[in-house]
Amino acid sequence: MSDPTTAPASAPVVLEAWFDLQCPDCFQALDDVRALREKYGDRVDVRLRHFPLEKHKHAYAAAQAAEEAAEQGQGWPYAEALLARTVELGRQGESVLIEVARELGLDAEEFDTALIDGRHLLAVDADEAEGKAIKVTGTPTYVIDGQRLDGGKSQDGLRERVEEIADRLLADAG
């Protein structure tokens, strides 16, 4: 995302969350993301990275919409609101992207224009290419301190593993 962070740029620990915004597993992973934010505050910078899966017909457009939301200063709130509606997105398609933007008070017309003119295609494509390069195969996947933690098959123990790594990195930085 253009403004993907939930913490200042000086945060000592970066956690990349590779998500597909039409993925029910990514919606469930939000509980872990919220818990990590609550525990670490601005000491951990959670960055949303896009990895739209082919099996989710509207995930690519959803990633572009999230980029537009980030430009309008609501990247994570938009992603979270959209993930709460993965079933609806699957059924109703891209109209849900605009509807969520309106609900958050964002410029829905600008969203519509952004989806038509493709201004965020390069950002989404770059994330997707980087994800493939580091062997992301499913979502959610986390990357912290160069370690890839794959939650595509099971999220059991993922948050604990992220916390172990974050605690070590923060202790080393402190």
Give an overview of the whole structure.
- By secondary structure, the protein is of the alpha+beta class.
- The protein has eight helices and four strands, in the order E-H-E-H-H-H-H-H-H-E-E-H.
- It has a four-stranded mixed sheet.
- The longest helix is centred in the N-terminal third of the chain and has 17 residues.
- The mean pLDDT is 91.
How are the SSEs ordered, and which strands pair?
Layout: E1 13-19, H1 24-40, E2 44-50, H2 59-71, H3 75-83, H4 86-92, H5 95-103, H6 108-117, H7 121-133, E3 141-144, E4 147-150, H8 158-173
Parallel strand pairs: 1-2
Antiparallel strand pairs: 1-3, 3-4
Order of helices and strands: EHEHHHHHHEEH
Q: What is the straight-line distance between the termini?
A: 28 Å
Oligomer: single chain
| Portion in strands | 5-15%
How many whole angstroms does the radius of gyration measure?
A: 15 Å
What structural category characterises the helix and strand content? Answer: alpha+beta
Largest sheet: 4 strands, mixed
Low-confidence stretches: none
Mean pLDDT: 91
Q: What portion of residues is helical? A: 40-55%
